[in-house]
Amino acid sequence: MAKATYKMPEEFLMRLSKLGEKTDEVTVTVLKAGAEVVESKVRSNLSLVIGKNTKTESRSTGQLLSALGVSEARQDRNGDFNIKVGFAENRTDGISNAMLANILEYGKQGQPAKPFLKPAKISTQKTCIDTMIATFYNEADKL
Known about the structure:
Layout: H1 10-19, H2 23-49, H3 63-67, E1 68-70, E2 74-75, E3 81-82, E4 85-87, H4 97-106, H5 117-142
Antiparallel strand pairs: 1-4, 2-3
Helix pairs in contact: 2-5
């Protein structure tokens, strides 16, 4: 059986050890910083595809765009922190925002796909990670 060992950079370990009781607080701050990067790109992409290239005049009410947001960072039963970028489900017309977003992303019969989520995920991956790393270092240096 093969075994691989990796050592973390000493600088990172020193900053990590400074966190102590503030680890959860810093984790939430780092996740929020990363989610803001992704949310802004999703919002930008969504505004570009809503109502564009349609056969008939757009009936967009702006509810989907206004429902986009970032959830609170929560800890799951395994102790891992999670944060989500998605849509709230409180439309006035009773239609699900998740369904509308899915139709835009993947299309349906007679309506071509207008992807906005996947391109945002791909284009923000490096920026999101870099932002989270910078936020971690900034928060650790404050302590």
